[in-house]
Amino acid sequence: MQIVKAYSYQELSKKASEIVIKAIAKKPDLVLGLATGSTPLGLYQLLVEANKNGEADFSKVKTFNLDEYAGLKKDNTQSYHYFMQENLFSKINIEKENIHILGDEGKSPEEECKIYEDKIKEAGGIDLQILGIGSNGHIAFNEPGSSKDSRTRIIKLDEKTRQDNARFFRSIDEVPTHAFTMGIGTILEAREIILLAGKSKKEIIQKVISSQPIPEIPASFLKLHSNCAFIIEE
Ligand code: F6R
Question: 131 CA to middle of ligand 1, Å?
Fold first, then answer.
């Protein structure tokens, strides 16, 4: 696991955008794994600019989002469908059929997860996965206790995660209790992973760095990946 230090949020976003832009230039039909949340917002703004300036062409890029709340409609302003549309997809030249977000098929949760895994395989696997990290060490919504071999599934959200994410809702009661998430095993199959962590994640990043790979700190399993970088804001 490589640690890349950034000295501002702007620099963190810039470093991440350079990696994504280079990857698209090298492989125009890149399969890109995407995260939501506050952390990648700067990265998405820079990707939108790069698309406008002709530095990044998304016309052949395929995307797979890490997670989505269970029970929220796509047009709910707190859904990750809505977030991605607002912050990235509506502003770049990506094809609608190349966008994948969990819970889209109108099937049972188990079928949705199986179809998602199949679609990732059909696309040839994820080339580059963007991750954030929860203050409890979660990646995607793999909460503490998730196994390294876990696959895409429905998970009960930790109370800590619901509290952290309550800032986006009117009250904590509105925060869903469950979510769809890619598994840790699914994430570890990506060819390259970059995890972005702003200043507020200092404490959990220290824990990840000093820990063995253990289910109590799901992000620690990223140490098992041979091409994973943490871009951290100091
Ligand atoms: C969201 C996701 C989550 C977030 C994490 C950090 O798609 O995968 O693991 O990355 O909860 O969220 P922020 O960036 O809002 O602190």
Answer: 7
Contact, 152 vs 115, CB < 8 A?
Answer: no
C-alpha distances in Å from residue 133, one per residue of 76, 81, 194, 211: 23, 19, 11, 15
Q: Beginning with the edge strand found earlier in the chain, give each strand of the sheet holding 128-131 in spatial order.
A: 2-6, 228-233, 192-197, 128-131, 31-34, 62-65, 99-100
Q: What is the mean pLDDT of residues 18-47?
A: 98
Q: What is the pLDDT of residues 156-189, one digit of tens each?
A: 999 999 999 999 999 999 999 999 999 999 999 9
User: CA–CA separation, 8 vs 81, rounded Å?
Assistant: 28
Q: Please give the backbone phi and psi of residue 115, each rounded to the nearest 5 degrees, phi first.
A: -60, -40
Quote the distance between the C-alpha of residue 53 and its chain's center.
25
Q: Residue 158 in 3-state DSSP?
A: coil
- Report the share of the chain in percent with pLDDT over 90: 97
Q: What are phi and psi of 212, to 5 degrees?
A: -70, 165
Res 105 pLDDT > 90: no
Any ligand 1 atom below 6 A from CB of 33:
no
Q: Which of 41, 43, 64, 66 to mutate to test the pocket of ligand 1 (most atoms within 8 A of CB)?
A: 66
Tell me if 37 CB under 6 Å of ligand 1: yes
